[in-house]
Amino acid sequence: MLRFLTAGESHGRALIGIIEGLPSNVNIDTDYINRDLYRRKNVFGRSERMKMEEDRVKILSGIRDGKTTGAPIAIMIENKDYRPELFSNSEKIYNPRPGHADLVGLLKYNLDDIRDVIERASARETAIRTAIGSIAKLFLNNFDIRVYSRVVNIGGIKDEDEFLIDEEYIKKVETSPVRCGNKEIEEKMMKLIIQASEEGDTLGGIFEVLVAGLPVGLGSYVHYDRRINSRIGAAILSIPGVKGVEFGKGFELSSIPGSSAVDEIGYSEEKGYFRRTNNMGGIEGGITNRENLVIRAVMKPIPTLRKSVQTVNVATKEKVLSRYERSDITGVPAASVIAESVVAWEIACEFLDKFSGDSFEDVENAYMNYIKRVSKY
Amino acid sequence: MLRFLTAGESHGRALIGIIEGLPSNVNIDTDYINRDLYRRKNVFGRSERMKMEEDRVKILSGIRDGKTTGAPIAIMIENKDYRPELFSNSEKIYNPRPGHADLVGLLKYNLDDIRDVIERASARETAIRTAIGSIAKLFLNNFDIRVYSRVVNIGGIKDEDEFLIDEEYIKKVETSPVRCGNKEIEEKMMKLIIQASEEGDTLGGIFEVLVAGLPVGLGSYVHYDRRINSRIGAAILSIPGVKGVEFGKGFELSSIPGSSAVDEIGYSEEKGYFRRTNNMGGIEGGITNRENLVIRAVMKPIPTLRKSVQTVNVATKEKVLSRYERSDITGVPAASVIAESVVAWEIACEFLDKFSGDSFEDVENAYMNYIKRVSKY
Amino acid sequence: MLRFLTAGESHGRALIGIIEGLPSNVNIDTDYINRDLYRRKNVFGRSERMKMEEDRVKILSGIRDGKTTGAPIAIMIENKDYRPELFSNSEKIYNPRPGHADLVGLLKYNLDDIRDVIERASARETAIRTAIGSIAKLFLNNFDIRVYSRVVNIGGIKDEDEFLIDEEYIKKVETSPVRCGNKEIEEKMMKLIIQASEEGDTLGGIFEVLVAGLPVGLGSYVHYDRRINSRIGAAILSIPGVKGVEFGKGFELSSIPGSSAVDEIGYSEEKGYFRRTNNMGGIEGGITNRENLVIRAVMKPIPTLRKSVQTVNVATKEKVLSRYERSDITGVPAASVIAESVVAWEIACEFLDKFSGDSFEDVENAYMNYIKRVSKY
Amino acid sequence: MLRFLTAGESHGRALIGIIEGLPSNVNIDTDYINRDLYRRKNVFGRSERMKMEEDRVKILSGIRDGKTTGAPIAIMIENKDYRPELFSNSEKIYNPRPGHADLVGLLKYNLDDIRDVIERASARETAIRTAIGSIAKLFLNNFDIRVYSRVVNIGGIKDEDEFLIDEEYIKKVETSPVRCGNKEIEEKMMKLIIQASEEGDTLGGIFEVLVAGLPVGLGSYVHYDRRINSRIGAAILSIPGVKGVEFGKGFELSSIPGSSAVDEIGYSEEKGYFRRTNNMGGIEGGITNRENLVIRAVMKPIPTLRKSVQTVNVATKEKVLSRYERSDITGVPAASVIAESVVAWEIACEFLDKFSGDSFEDVENAYMNYIKRVSKY
After folding, report:
1. Minimal Cα distance from A236: which residue of B?
2. Is the CB of residue D21 less than 8 Å away from at least one CB of chain A?
3. Using CA atoms, how far apart are residues A218 and A227, in angstroms rounded to an integer?
4. Which of B119, B327, C324, D88 lies most in the core, judged by the most C-beta atoms within 10 Å?
5. ipTM
6. Domain locations in chain D?
7. For D284-293, what is each residue's pLDDT tens digit?
8. What percent of chain D clears pLDDT 70, i.e. is strictly above it?
């Protein structure tokens, strides 16, 4: 069973993660992880801090000569913007920002300084989760399972193009500052971001994650908590700011009759069983069906605005304007990269539940044997 | 820690559930549970089977004189439509229905009779989950936490009214055959269902769950897997046919600037802290903020159609038309009741994580003390 | 991941268990399970109740045509001694028996009738756990993993013979009323039991569980909670009345120098790696080493005595003599059978963690491949 | 729910731990943790390495101004004996030491260098677990729950004195190089250790852990996996080298009749309910009964001997003598300190399951209220 814990504050010394349960003999390429950290960081609409942070992962244990040994893997991302002064006698913060954990955190944890909340509630934590998921991706790559993402909506500007899984399209997305595959739409999105920035406002949007190369059979209908959409949905919803998630045609299915929605089953010698359409986004009965897994999620506009927003000083109970902390204009492009990681992690978990083994070789055998079995069905 | 397991096949002897972790001295009213089972069953658009099933819960253990003792609670719903003949030498089923677990289940579990898949993959299982969640509701009622639901879209017919938490509106929903609070919309929905039925088609839709009376502080930002939206999202996505879930304004937030989306914080002597709007659906930073929890989910049209749908005979690999099994025209109204239960369960889990105790009295003390603490903040 | 829950009271309608996580296509022989229930029941020194109970398992779900389908398995053992009158207006019990959960249960769960405690705290619950573990044994039998047990001490009468894994010795144990392989010792044990019975006293003892046929590699040293001895130790200690557990030479190792204790490693073409002795009981570094797994555990004398024992009436706080409830003279022989089951369960869990798969065929492939890999090492 | 993960190799850069689930506002005294690390290290019979290691804990997150914030706590112990050269092109090790994970680890994880096994299987890992448990102790101290330990047997030299919980006796234990409370026995133990050292041999023994100040009601009989002895037993058995664990009179109970073993119940105005003896070691029905929790465990002699031990070279399959790695003569005194920590952790888990709360103040309220309730019973 794969599991991890993370720790670390936004302006603390470092973010730390421990991963337990990977088999031995998995190749781990640190550059690959750092590339994902870079992809998360280097998008349009982010704050100054991102320029400051280097975000390079340091591996502290569990890997020898570039391979896992079976032992827990500890990783660390040091914060360049480490501010020890904030953790001793800094001035207390009393004005909670609406839309953040500021006020609920104070009340829940019986604290008297919002600093204690925001250091951990900060989305900075997603850096270490990106790295953890990147390790999951490295594992899945061995089985040609690939996780992609793009942005399909920022502030209402929609990209309705199909998500093509070919080199050219992926390259467009990866070189787009807003991770959008359509040049025209991209420009509109960027304009809107600049405009929002000028107005002291922020923007939400929708991103899409697509997983190609999955085998049939991940997840299960036999018990409610084993459905793969549950697991992936939970992971996506754990990304700060995400307020909704859908699979395949998702909410559109409310308005499409069954006869148009259903993905008919076909069969051919070369491909085996397939679906003639993929409205269900690769999942039937809580189980992957070998079609591409398609997930879309909405991220709310970041609630930290330069525009004035009303709140209450918790010490005096007076109406005040919310303080402004350095913040992104939109988190959607970054969220799409983070989402790749959290999805990869859940798939790796399901994969290792199904094809368990203590060494990479054992896992590979179990996988190959299964693929052979189902392809003969 | 609260947990449960369920077992049982659609045409087996019975559905069974075991609940472990409820404190002692919780009053359990069997009629209340049966009422929820009736609410799930007795909606428009369901199949003939529902008329056949009585769906009354039988308590086998854990309750004495109407109260929990702390011991595990075993419950059972006997199937009136028990068909022992299906479990011995019945004819094998080879034509998988698209959109169901039929084919993926065969492949995953290495079976040769679709009967082995569909007996467990059937949505019949949601009856026992409704009962389990109904017990969670009974527990939450003691703290004036109430879970409501309604249908807001069937097949594209939308109800855009606000979800009012007053007796009159709730009564309208509860007496509506499609669980819609607006008479006019209700009629349109029913017409569409009848039309779909005549055409051999099916319909999806959207339902809404609202939880009132929650304390501030359920869920957490400190670790990714403790966000209450993750937990609730996973539960909702585990209802068969659900393809998306959103909180508060959900997917609409992609198109609303931060300055309009943010729920400003207010304070008054009587109410304490409150939000001036509730676009976030009662959750900030993965934590309840004392506003109503608002969840919406989309259910796909049921893929069992009388209209012809193409599939493949797994024995011969020939193209065939999908067989028709008795089925609902739409599952949306029933799903809204099931969703109440699964949401209630997750909230009871969070509640007991936060206000643990072996007896109801201990839990009540922890809760009251906390409410006093935060109200003085 | 394999898991189960149990429910049911001692004089309630039935004991119920749900098992989730077994692969499909495992043969389940109900007679085998019933035989284990009989072995648990039909030993010397037990109370009258055991003669009354039939203890036959009823399978409610998850099995079709004698095979698992992958769905949860619900099983039930009906109580012949069902006493519905105890669950309504029966007279309350106020005198806690020392050594039982009577008093601690009252206090913990804030109850006012000891009946509410003892119905669940009763060792009657081990009947359903025996059945659950028996299913685990059936699974393990496919891989020639066999779980045996015997009694080596009752009330101080020790059997110091070696535990031979041959048909003749096993037969001796299985036909012995106290599950002792040595006729002479058996007689002494039985005499002591009769004597204790006459004196209104009870006896403890030590039983041994031995697992033959295990592969190398179950359990792990990489994280503290994955050591197989931890897992098995916890299971054994969960049998009511067990106060200690040891592996291999166990407590004797406190007095043996390392040079005598160490199990030297040998190698031969036919056997591969082996140990020249088995002082460690088949475990090194928290991992099975292919030698027999040897576990011993002590069960305290049952604290329900006909002899007078002092306690306190919880209503009046007066000193009183403990009431006598029908009880066994010794639970050791029964406990050895229960222990087989709980050990088999934990091994099946570890086995399926390591050689996972959704169907029996997938598990078998993973196992065979691993055995081939390690045998070539 | 409290949880932790650890990572780190014996000669890697550092040992790392992440703790998740502690409430906010718990005072954390780093000196206290370091004192426990010192107590683990600074005992008689340990190897040279212990002199080299400083073992000071570094807190990386989760604590501000000496208090927990509710966020995960990351801690680190840097290895002075860090040897980066071992993790790149060092010479491979082919001769497995019997009694260690060397051979089973190679086979399980499909490795070809024993170095990959021993770096993680090393008991060095217990340093970080000691620190983690020390944090649990700090938490429990607030409720006057105290965890003590001593050594009662080394290599057969037994200390049969009672474990007195008074300042003087504890001081004797804490100043004894072998953690024995009896000067005469201590001397004999030390002589035996010196003798074993001269002979190239090693020694096992027995240690005892005692927890005073526990409330009634931790653990439960309602489900098998909630018995506190199971949980504590598993933790003790996870300490490398431990081969058995017992509670109260433990294995002696095999030979004592029920009438002598039973702990009669008494009651007095000042003390409430109490037991007249404590043969059961503070646990009835899997639940603490307010008497001292008494645990004893056996540790095998360390299998790394200077004396020659036979093994097999895994590359050549030749008989060889086991290589000698720097090692302790006996690990028993150190294990007793480690055991305090692992027991404290499990008790803190049970405590927080029962008296949950997000802040220390909430937990304290729940605890005080419960104590009041049961004291009035």
Report:
1. B230
2. no
3. 9
4. B119
5. 0.97
6. 3-374
7. 999 999 999 9
8. 100
